[in-house]
Design brief:
alpha/beta, five-stranded parallel β-sheet, seven-stranded mixed β-sheet, single chain
Length: about 475
């Protein structure tokens, strides 16, 4: 029987008259859970609860906030086995990937529990005698967090941990494909003692509740991770209002392999960055640029690493690459591969959907490497968000940097080289918010500021202390104590 889960609103676990089925992408035949399909009225009530919760939470001691965030982190770790199993079931990650995500979500709560104990402000000199002036950071109010399906536990933690640490209340809208682990996250905070209304989770279809989510006048800020199309529509909808917007959007991340690189290490890193989570990461490597003298040898090593991957259900310990999140995502990636071939790309491996009995009911795409890719092809320019690498060969370091920067995006890039001068030049010249040398484009830690340039997002970074800039406003206070 399909498990039914309630959602958190106003400190209570609530159901609804209609339900949203959640499916396992490794086998779509039966739902694994169902969650409330909330209405616009439910959304309005959630914002009302958040406003009431903010009035309490902003006056709550930072030390009490830290205690609650730390308590929620401990609960996530204690419940990690069950949460990871649900993450595998609703999103398709491997067991190892899901377990790692639970740990990283707890890391976010612990990190920001620490920052909650630290004052946000500075004592300033004042030209006026007998006057002490300071500036401080205060919470904004009610934050709307809209999170994607690819990291359905980590992304709510990345956004809500700093928002709550700073004293804000929140309404969380998880992706319709993967709401289950977001409810686990909410339950951990609730069970740790979060006051009623400080966090409210709205589950349901965007077509039914999207307008109510964005139109509510109590919103002080919106933080969004997802597609450029949706992100730009949100930015436009909020532009006429005094609502702060943070967008973490698309990427078309490149790795450059120079002629002096450690080629086996580079091949391993590219496969890890390209095919981890079946390529469904905003920081996944999707373009690989290789200097011509080592292109043939690197390609051999790359294909050997790809051949060692094992595609299957995430719950199978032998699986190293799970399915895509949905049939629609699978079909879109296969269409992108087909278009690349029509435009002249050559499939070196993969390019298809596994047809065996064990996987035919799932959302699988074979790990794919495309050669003979040119700069004019869609697969070079557009985000595929699946297990697909586009290979190009260049003649020099300068050509490699030009190819890396040949994108409207600017999220992550990597270079493999033994030359320190090339490493530092690449870090200087790559038009990306995240630059790696001799390691993967993915894998940034909770205290590392995270975010891209150009069409990859807004000016506000996530993670680290930078995140607190988005979730707070600055107030300057002068106190005259003379006669």
């Amino acid at each position: 029987m399909t498990r039914t889960m309630e959602t958190l609103s106003g400190g209570q676990w609530v159901a609804s008259d209609a339900w949203l089925d959640v499916h396992d992408p490794s086998d779509l035949r039966e739902p694994v859970a169902r969650v409330p399909a909330m209405t616009a009225d439910d959304v309005t009530r959630a914002f009302g609860h958040a406003a009431e919760g903010f009035a309490v939470w902003k006056r709550t001691s930072p030390f009490e906030r830290a205690r609650i965030l730390g308590g929620a982190a401990r609960l996530l770790r204690e419940r990690a086995t069950d949460i990871a199993a649900d993450l595998v079931a609703e999103m398709g990650k491997t067991r190892a990937e899901a377990t790692g995500e639970v740990g990283k979500a707890a890391d976010f709560l612990e990190y920001y529990a620490g920052t909650a104990r630290t004052g946000y402000g500075t004592l300033l000199h004042d030209v006026r005698p007998d006057t002490r002036t300071s500036h401080r950071r205060e919470p904004l109010g009610v934050v709307l967090a809209i999170t994607p399906w690819n990291d359905p536990l980590l992304t709510p933690a990345r956004k809500l941990a700093p928002a709550l640490a700073a004293g804000n209340a929140a309404v969380l809208k998880p992706a319709t494909e993967t709401p289950v682990v977001a409810l686990h996250f909410a339950r951990a905070l609730h069970d740790a003692g979060l006051p009623a209304g400080v966090l409210n989770v709205v589950t349901g279809r965007g077509s039914a509740i999207g307008d109510a989510l964005i139109a509510d006048p109590r919103i002080a800020a919106v933080t969004f991770t997802g597609s450029n199309e949706v992100g730009e529509s949100l930015r436009a909808a909020l532009a006429a209002r005094n609502v702060r917007f943070q967008g973490e959007l698309g990427g078309k991340n490149a790795t450059a392999v120079l002629a002096d690189a450690d080629l086996p290490a580079a091949a391993k890193a590219v496969v890890a960055a390209s095919f981890g989570q079946a390529g469904q990461r905003c920081t996944a490597t999707s373009r690989v640029i290789v200097e011509e003298p080592v292109a043939e040898r690197f390609t051999e090593l790359l294909l050997a690493e790809v051949a060692a991957l094992r595609t299957g259900p995430g719950a199978d310990p032998a699986t190293t690459m799970g399915p895509l999140v949905s049939a629609g995502q699978r079909d879109g990636v296969l269409a992108d591969i087909g278009r690349a071939v029509e435009q002249g790309a050559r499939v070196l491996t993969g390019g298809d959907r596994p047809g065996d009995e064990a996987r035919r009911h799932g959302c699988y795409v074979s790990p794919t490497v495309l050669a003979d890719v040119t700069a004019g092809m869609n697969v070079w320019r557009e985000e595929v968000f699946g297990p697909v690498i586009a290979l190009r060969t260049v003649g020099s370091f300068e050509e490699a940097v030009t190819a890396v920067n040949d994108s409207v995006y600017g999220l992550a890039a990597a270079v493999f080289t033994r030359d320190l001068a090339f490493a530092y030049r690449f870090a200087d010249e790559a038009e990306c918010g995240q630059v790696a040398v001799n390691t993967t484009t993915s894998g940034w830690d909770v205290h590392h500021p995270f975010g891209g340039f150009h069409d990859s997002g807004s000016a506000f970074k996530e993670q680290g202390e930078e995140a607190l800039r988005f979730y707070t406003r600055v107030k300057t206070v002068a106190v005259h104590f003379g006669g």
